[in-house]
Amino acid sequence: MIGRLQGILVLKQPPALLVDVQGVGYELEAPMSTFYQLQDVGQAVTLYTHLVVRDDAHLLYGFATLEERGLFRDLIRVNGVGPRLALTILSGIDAAGFARCITEGDTATLTRLPGVGKKTADRLVVEMRDRILASPMPSASEVQRPTVKASGIVSDAINALITLGYRPAEASSLVQSVRGENLSVEDLIRRALQATLRP
Q: Would you say 76 and 59 are in contact if contact means Cβ atoms under 8 Å apart?
């Protein structure tokens, strides 16, 4: 089992990461909550990982904190929630917000996340409540990221949302509604995801 990687960040294109560890490149997928905390490409990075072994692939997922990885592991134990949906959930709502939804039975907020229907939201509340109460989730830290001036920022943000499960038209509309001057890709995605949670 690969539990942690420490190396140089080579590629950062949500949700994909490439980390060079002494000449070996590890491909990972990570939630947006991790992307918000990453250094720039070329900088050192440490990620806690979870390896999923399938018949057709070995998939590695990376997380900025042990708590985030723990929540991911709890999520994939829920019936009907796979790694892709778990990443989408972690990308769309922070740990504190998720814990609040579970403890208060707020399925309406959970169903605003792509891929989470009423049945899945109900199942999350039922199966996660005891785990959340036994181990309260810390609030996610807000990290200011430096802005990146590049022509592909909007299209990168749209592509990241599509990868997270949004329909192309929906992803484009979300990004266009929140775009602003001098926003990084991560900030644009964060604003779009926050917009989906507004009533």
A: no
| Residue 128 and residue 71 share a domain | yes
Q: Which residues contact 105 (CB under 8 A, 6 or more apart)?
A: 125
Closest C-alpha among 37, 36, 51, 44 to residue 19: 44
Residue with tokens 């250094």: 39
- How do residues 83-120 score in pLDDT, each as one tens digit? 999 998 998 888 888 888 898 898 998 998 888 899 99
Which residue, of 81, 100, 134, is where some domain finishes? 134
pLDDT, one tens digit per residue, over 24-54 is 999 999 998 898 889 899 999 999 999 998 8
pTM above the 0.70 mark? Answer: no
Q: 130-151: b or e for each residue (b if 16 or more CB lie within 10 Å)? A: ebbeeeebeebeeeebeebeee
Judge contact between 1 and 49, C-beta under 8 A.
no
Residue 170 to residues 32, 80, 157, 176, Cα–Cα distance (Å): 18, 24, 12, 10
Its domain, for residue 26, covers 4-63
